[in-house]
Design brief:
The protein is of the alpha+beta class and 92 residues long. The chain has 1 helix and 5 strands; from the N terminus they run ββββαβ. It has one helix spanning 40-55, and strands spanning 7-8, 15-16, 22-27, 33-37, 60-65. The strands form 2 sheets. Strands 4-3-5 form a 3-stranded antiparallel beta sheet, with helices on one face. It has a two-stranded antiparallel ribbon with strand order 1-2. A hairpin with a 5-residue loop joins β3 (22-27) and β4 (33-37). The longest helix is centred in the middle third of the chain and has 16 residues, at 40-55. It binds zinc ion (2 copies). One zinc ion is lined by residues 21, 66-67, 70, 72, 79, 81, 83. One zinc ion binds next to loops.
């Protein structure tokens, strides 16, 4: 039996439940993905850290993982499920 992957927030080191909304920032070179809670303080850290990494010449793709209860299947933030209160400004 494989155990579910534990996702930890790169901003606060807290655990992110897979069924809860969160943001993943994927390093397109290495495939490593940094995950962040959808709450504003972690999103601020996410935007800051991503900006720092981008300025170092890295290339990233941001993924928005919606809540399991979110009625919107489309990717990206701005859904009506309230997953992402504060749309963050990261390059995509
Ligand atoms: Zn967090
Ligand atoms: Zn949503």
């Amino acid at each position: 039996m494989s155990r579910p992957r534990v996702i930890r927030c790169a901003a606060c080191a807290g655990r992110i439940k897979p069924q809860h909304p969160h943001v993943g920032v994927e390093d397109l070179e290495t495939g490593v993905e940094f995950s962040y809670h959808a709450r504003p303080d972690c999103q601020i850290r996410c935007a800051e850290e991503t900006a720092t990494r981008l300025s170092a010449g890295k290339v990233y793709a941001a993924h928005h993982y919606h809540s399991a209860l979110c009625p919107v299947a489309a990717s990206g933030f701005g859904c009506t499920g309230g997953c992402f209160d504060t749309p963050m400004a990261v390059a995509n």
